[in-house]
């Protein structure tokens, strides 16, 4: 963890969570198309900022965001945020149902945030991935259950599947892996 403290990770994941809630708000009150437009704008603007930062440009707001929320040793500045926006955009592009998109964003925003917040304090490593914990996986499942508010009882299966997938040791960022899992879950 950056600076070796829990408060940094908590701050990151609270931002992660509230941005997801904001996406659900846009989806519900403005519609799927406006969510796609918003996320496309954020992705384009963010990509430009990433390129400029990689070229050594000092951009005050992006510098502050990187210092405040970015983990150390990432592949490029804004790495996690980039994949978060890409993953959420894929949900809005590939899922036609507002309820399915909202349920999947709950998994991405609440489930993934809870997995980290509870997981870093967990004491029981997973047998198949010792970098993650049983406590984190349980938290992911429990905090994804509000997806049931959008899709009914099938949200339990989504929560279980996404929790298992999130626990795997893969080279794919969770912010992309969770949405892809939700898309495959809902279109199958």
Helix-strand pattern, N to C? HHHHHEEHHHH
Secondary structure category: mainly alpha
Number of strands: 2
Please tally the helical runs, counting DSSP H or I stretches of 4 or more residues: 9
For the largest beta sheet, what order do the strands appear in spatially? 1-2
Helix content range of the residues, please? over 70%
Which residue ranges are poorly predicted, with pLDDT under 50 across at least 5 consecutive positions? none
Shape: globular
What does the largest sheet look like?
Answer: 2 strands, antiparallel
Query: Could you give the distance between the termini?
Result: 37 Å
Compute the gyration radius: what is it?
16 Å
Oligomerization status of the protein chains: single chain
Number of domains: 1
Query: Mean pLDDT score, rounded?
Result: 93
Estimate the strand proportion: under 5%
Task: Give a written overview of the molecule.
With 188 residues, the chain is mostly helical. It has one domain (2-187). Helices cover 74% and strands 4% of the residues. The chain has helices at residues 6-30, 32-54, 60-69, 79-94, 98-119, 134-144, 148-151, 154-167, 174-187, and strands spanning 125-126, 129-133. It has a two-stranded antiparallel ribbon. The longest helix has 25 residues, at 6-30.
Describe what is shown at a glance.
By secondary structure, the chain is mainly α. It has helices at about 5-30, 30-55, 60-70, 80-95, 100-120, 135-145, 150, 155-165, 175-185, and strands spanning about 125, 130-135.
């Amino acid at each position: 963890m950056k600076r070796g403290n829990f408060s940094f990770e908590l701050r990151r994941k609270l931002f992660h969570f509230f941005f997801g809630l904001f996406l659900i708000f846009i989806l519900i009150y403005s519609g799927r198309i406006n969510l796609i437009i918003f996320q496309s704008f954020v992705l384009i603007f963010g990509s430009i900022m990433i390129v400029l930062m990689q070229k050594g440009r000092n951009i005050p707001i992006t510098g502050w965001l990187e210092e405040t929320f970015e983990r150390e040793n990432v592949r490029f500045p804004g790495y996690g945020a980039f994949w978060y926006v890409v993953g959420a955009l894929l949900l809005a592009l590939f899922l036609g149902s507002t309820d399915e998109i909202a349920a999947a964003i709950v998994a991405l925003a609440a489930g993934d945030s809870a997995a980290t917040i509870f997981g870093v304090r967990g004491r029981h490593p997973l047998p198949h991935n010792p970098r993650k914990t049983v406590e984190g996986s349980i938290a992911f499942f429990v905090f994804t259950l509000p997806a049931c508010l959008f899709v009914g009882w099938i949200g339990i299966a989504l929560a279980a599947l996404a929790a298992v997938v999130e626990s795997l040791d893969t080279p794919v960022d969770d912010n992309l892996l969770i949405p892809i899992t939700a898309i495959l879950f809902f279109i199958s």
